[in-house]
Specification:
By secondary structure, the chain is an all-alpha fold. The protein contains 2 helices and no strands. It is about 60% helix and about 0% strand. The mean pLDDT is about 80.
Length: about 55
């Protein structure tokens, strides 16, 4: 048995992009992170609510 989650190693294409974006945000100076997280939050909210006009960009 393994301690890894069952979906570990599977590439769904979505999570990789999010993880990359989070890595970029974490590399920014502390003062800039709040704005970057707020922007990401807004984009995710719009995506989850189905606002296609504000998808990728």
């Amino acid at each position: 048995m393994s301690d890894e989650p069952q979906d570990a190693g599977q590439d769904d294409g979505v999570s990789d992009g999010l993880v990359d974006r989070l890595d970029v945000i974490e590399e920014q100076p502390l003062a800039a992170r709040a704005d970057a997280y707020a922007h990401l939050h807004e984009q995710l909210r719009r995506t989850l609510e189905g606002d296609d006009d504000h998808g990728r960009g």
